[in-house]
């Protein structure tokens, strides 16, 4: 005679384990991939700084990354890179020929709010990059130099 009770318990145990693991994964996923929304406050936008020219440095936003290459003969910075006259990140000197890839989640405003970069696990809609400027020049003669925002890709 065959004992069928044992063969039924193994598949039920496997199914129960799969259901529990499947239910726990979304909960842990929310915590593992939670979008950073606040950080230490940065400085306020320097409205009083004079505006320089717009440099022919093209800025590309690809989901959560900002890419740019200094194709000019000019060195910019070190200073702060500003997005949309609100969010900033400290940057080293941007030398001719340098290429940067920056995480948009590293940009913070003066209240500690992190730039809404978006991405697959984002809880908020992404914000477009419409203005990109860099503080440049010696400490006693700083100016804001604009860069050309070419593309905003959210997917």
Quick recap:
With 155 residues, the protein is of the alpha+beta class. It has one helix spanning 5-32, and strands spanning 51-62, 65-69, 79-83, 87-91, 99-103, 132-136, 143-153.
Can you give a write-up of this model?
The protein is α+β, with helices and mostly antiparallel strands and 155 residues long. It has one helix at residues 5-32; strands spanning 51-62, 65-69, 79-83, 87-91, 99-103, 132-136, 143-153. A hairpin with a 3-residue loop joins β3 and β4. The protein starts with a helix and ends with a strand. Mean pLDDT is 80; it is low at 24-35.
Task: Supply database-style keywords.
single chain, 155 residues, alpha+beta, seven-stranded mixed beta sheet, 7 strands, 18% helix
The portion of residues assigned to helices is 10-25%
User: Which shape, going by the Cα principal axes?
Assistant: globular
Q: List the secondary-structure elements in sequence, H or E.
A: HEEEEEEE
- Whole-number radius of gyration? 24 Å
Mean pLDDT level: 80
The main sheet orders its strands as 4-3-6-7-1-2-5
Instruction: Tell me the fraction of residues in β-strands, as a range.
Output: 25-35%
Largest sheet: 7 strands, mixed
How are the SSEs ordered, and which strands pair?
Layout: H1 5-32, E1 51-62, E2 65-69, E3 79-83, E4 87-91, E5 99-103, E6 132-136, E7 143-153
Parallel strand pairs: 1-7
Antiparallel strand pairs: 1-2, 2-5, 3-4, 3-6, 6-7
């Amino acid at each position: 005679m065959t004992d069928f009770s044992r063969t039924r318990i193994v598949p039920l145990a496997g199914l129960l384990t799969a259901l529990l693991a499947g239910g726990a994964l979304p909960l842990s996923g929310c915590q593992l991939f939670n979008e950073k929304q606040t950080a230490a406050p940065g400085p306020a936008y320097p409205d009083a700084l004079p505006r320089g020219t717009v440099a022919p440095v093209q800025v590309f936003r690809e989901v959560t990354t900002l890419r740019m290459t200094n194709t000019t003969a000019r060195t910019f910075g070190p200073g702060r890179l500003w997005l949309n006259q609100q969010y900033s990140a400290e940057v080293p000197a941007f030398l001719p020929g340098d290429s940067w890839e920056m995480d948009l989640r590293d940009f913070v405003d003066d209240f500690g709010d992190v730039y809404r970069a978006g991405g697959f696990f984002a809880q908020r809609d992404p914000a477009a990059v419409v203005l990109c400027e860099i503080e440049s020049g010696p400490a006693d003669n700083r100016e804001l130099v604009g860069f050309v925002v070419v593309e905003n890709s959210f997917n």
